[in-house]
Design a protein that fits this description.
The chain has 3 domains: about 90 residues, Immunoglobulin-like; about 290 residues; about 80 residues, Macroglobulin (MG2) domain (Immunoglobulin-like), CATH 2.60.40.1930. It is built from 10 helices and 24 strands. It is about 20% helix and about 25% strand. The structure holds zinc ion (2 copies). The site of one zinc ion has 4 residues, from helix 6. The site of one zinc ion has 6 residues, from loops. This is Zinc metalloproteinase.
Length: about 500
Amino acid sequence: MNNHNIKVTNFTNLDAVTYPIIKLIGTIDYEVSVSCQNQTDKNVYLTLNDNSNILITTNVIDNKFKFLVELQRGKNQINIKFCCETMGITLEYFSIKSENSVIPLYVICEGHDGYFQAPPWENNNVESACKRITLCSKLLQCVTAEKLYEHSLGRKTFCLDGDCQVFHSGLNYIEARNMSQVELWEYIGREIMKSELACENKKYLAFLSCTRYWGENYKESMKTHEELLQITQAYVALGGGGLALFGTACLYTWPESFEEIILRFEDQALVDRTQFLDDSCYRGTVGACFSTTLGSVLHELYHTFDLGHTEDGIMSRGFDNIYKVFTRPQSTSHRTNSSHDMTKALTDKIEFKEEFESDSLVERLQNENKRKGYTVISKYEEEVDDTFLTRSCAVLLCYHRWFNQTTSSRQCSLLSFDCFNKLIKSTSGVRVVEIRSKNVELVLYNWTFEGRILKFSFQIPQDVIISLNEDSYIMFVEDTVGCILKEEFSI
Ligand SMILES: [Zn+2]
Ligand SMILES: [Zn+2]
């Protein structure tokens, strides 16, 4: 019987993934036929492994359904039921022990009890923090895999080195609260690299327990994000080199368990600014805080994978709507209405500042050298695809050592840039070439080479050279085995 033609559109039977949380999307034909028994039930039901246990239901909207599924290790039998039809798909999850991986950390400063700022009804102890950080790191693995898949690059993603660990810092929490973002990033980075966790094959995704938003100092007149940050201590959102570091002012908006994820994204409760930091990109809800802060973690984590900035997408300011990757699809009619309502809110200016100054850092944290903030204007909230990677970013990740767990990390190649002739050579084949601005590493020009026939050399076209009129730029190159060349050059 095939009355409703249930189709999973982003996976095929027996596909395998290396990360536990997946997004399953598909289509359904919901026209009623003679065999339909219960025509009023428009839900789609998903059961995992054990058929007696209905895991998730979702509404069908515009013939589409979407599920988040937490797979168990090994083969998973997924059944999707709509009305009188059921379809099955088997998907495998296997984790790989990878040399290059990401360690999630919860950093507790000296003298601090490890309780992050939260309303009284939320768990906010160390265990809760670690659960939230671990779960959301898995969500970011899923987003990354889906984004590369959308680029037809396969479901590659980074590996996590176990669950979130506690890292006890020797830095006193009161001192930490009086330090700038850059100072905190440098200090914690240096400390990690002197600790027993130090390993050059690891990136660290760390959250500071002692972030404090002083709501008692909030005034109605405070409108901008900047102003709110002025009454927040130990706020950080910075990534580069081997460390992405964050504050925890909005950690309470993150889910602790898998079942909560969608509800948390959809939480329309307003943030009480006299109590908690509103980091929601001017949307004001608890759910938007989760979305914005999760998106910014992804953006910063991607900097540790050597991505620069782009005009749009995740590596610009296009991460606030990351919730749409996960939440139930909205109907087209609803979309039209709300985009109409949105027109007034469009001109919201968002100050998006990342400061970087890494002169004094330990060697491997030294890769980044950004300074200067920049301003981006928010776009329509209802744009169809507003969480995406540009092509060169996606290809860069695809060949990155943190995304290739097996042999290539041990392979070597000779990669060179002849500045005089603007000629790039790699013995393993050039994959990505980007010319980035020196100040904020904005990708100005990019070339990707993805074919089977390797590109052993590439010369920057003359018309591009002519158009470059700053004193200096950054040349960024990545080759087939993930070797990276990044150097400043002048015209
Ligand atoms: Zn039916
Ligand atoms: Zn950035």
